What we know:
By secondary structure, the protein is mainly alpha-helical. It has helices at about 5-15, 20-25, 30-35. α2 packs across α3 (about 30-35). The relative contact order is 0.22. InterPro entries: Cro/C1-type_HTH, Lambda_DNA-bd_dom_sf. This is Helix-turn-helix domain-containing protein.
Amino acid sequence: MKIHEIIRSSRKERGMTQDELAKYLGVSAPAVNKWEKGVSQS
């Protein structure tokens, strides 16, 4: 399983939106979206 798949499945298991995860981590929602698409890992 690749990191973007792990991020997405973990977020969904917790019932979180990308926006909620972004706020929790202190990053932007577009950053989380990129991570989940495998476009960016930073």
